[in-house]
Amino acid sequence: MNGLLAVGTCHSTAYDGMSYTRGGTVDRADVGALVQSAADGDAAAWKSLVDGLGPLVWSVARSHGLSDADAHEVYQTAWFRFAQHLGRIREPEKSGSWLASTARHECLKLLKASRRWTPTDDPQLLDRPSEDRTPEESVLDSEEAAAQTERVRLLWQEFEELGERCRQLLRVLISSPPPSYQEVSAALGMAVGSIGPMRQRCLRRLRARLEARGTR
Amino acid sequence: MNDRNDGRDERDEYEEREEHGERDGELYDGLLEEELRQAATILDPVPAELRRIAVDAFALRDLDVRVAELTFDSLVDAIPVRGETDPPRMLTFESDGVTVDVEVTADGLIGQLLPPGPAGIEVLSGPRAHARLTADDMGRFTGAAPPAGPFALRLRTGREVVVTEWLRA
Question: Which stretches does UniProt call biased (Basic and acidic residues) (chain B) (predicted)?
Fold first, then answer.
């Protein structure tokens, strides 16, 4: 896709090269076709889009430090608009970027409207009531997995204590499936070329924190 | 000749070591990112009810109506008036030839359709209509404040159907 074409034109440092060939662009290869099918009335294609791009939209809402209620509204607004514009989207294969950018603008508006800025290192996040148990959570409940649970909690805790910029970038980068750098750029209003170096710096900062804690 | 070769070999070896270091760093970065991704899937997944709402939003695709895009939003486009703590939200939506001005306050919603004319208006909250309003012959309409969460207006004039872009008031 466009990501692969861009390789030839970018400065080829290790991370820049990687930025265009991440799994994201490959996983996203059929987004354009799914959008077309959904516009033609295929509900299953729409569901695939929700599952493939929903975590990216959610990560944008989470990365802007909104309250839970506002994050929910951003997520809904982005999907309602996407449904509304389905069939009119000029570059269907870039729908991930479209959704990410729509979510970002809504985030900035809500921040402006409410100024209900709350840092994302919300202790509730770690002890969230378990209304919707994912299979992963159930696995973590089993006693054998207790050590693994502890490891995940520690990792997440250190992640949440990173500076705001790193937390924001990493939260979007770690949505699943991995987003392309174009999508990250749309999500955060950041130049594609600065994502790789920032990512590296943030991950190494996180690793240093983990090592200092003696967990690695 | 030999000396120069040796020199280059040493440098190559050095560069190779450097490259190894860089590659290892990249590898660790990738592994750590992947571990974080799994942690996010476990600790901060898309809430199930939100996923359901997004799946149901498929019903909102409406290929035969015109979408009136948001062209003015006082939250972004207006210069704040000093001393005004809770100014009304002014919104303008435009589609070819149709303009909808909406003012939203805690008390309610006031709107003006241009060109002026009667219209049936639905206040949408997700796939369902939340309320029905009527624009009078002058294109004016009023209603209760829109519901919490994103809303849109669907307007039926004599000639066409226009839906405003989804927005959180």
Answer: 1-11
- Beta-carbon separation of B41 and A134 below 8 A: yes
- Answer yes or no: do B34 and B80 share one domain: no
Same domain, yes or no: B33 and B66: no
Within a domain: B133: yes
Q: List the structure tokens of B41.
A: 């899937």
Predicted confidence at residue A66, as pLDDT, reads: 92
Predicted ipTM? Answer: 0.83
Q: Cβ separation of A84 and B38 shorter than 8 Å?
A: no
Domain total of chain B: 2
CATH number of the domain bearing residue B142: 2.60.40.760
Strands (E), chain B: 66-73, 89-95, 98-104, 109-114, 119-125, 128-135, 140-143, 150-156, 161-164, 167-168
Cα–Cα distance, B50 to A73 (Å, whole number): 9
pLDDT tens-digit series, residues A110-131: 888 765 334 444 434 434 444 4
Q: Judged by CB atoms within 8 Å, which residues 141-160 of B form the interface with A?
A: 149-150, 152
* Nearest Cα to Cα of residue B62 among A41, A89, A88, A84: A84
> In B, which residues are within 8 Å of A126 by CB distance?
43
What's the domain range around B16?
2-45
CA distance readout (Å), A160 to A157, B14, B163: 5, 38, 40
Q: Is residue B54 part of a domain?
A: no
Amino acid at A23: G
Burial of A37: CB neighbours in 10 Å, binned 0-12, 13-18, 19+: middle
Whole-structure pTM value: 0.79
Coil/strand/helix, residue B95: strand
Residues 15-74 on B with a CB inside 8 Å of A are 22-23, 25-26, 28-29, 32-33, 35-51, 53-55, 57-63, 67, 73
In this complex, do B50 and A58 lie within 8 Å of one another by their Cβ atoms? yes
Q: Considering only CB atoms, which chain B residues are within 8 Å of A88?
A: 67
Lowest mean pLDDT among A119-123, A190-194, B103-107: A119-123
Residues B67 and B122 reside in one and the same domain: yes
* A to B CB pairs, distance under 8 Å: 152
The pLDDT value recorded for residue A119 is 40
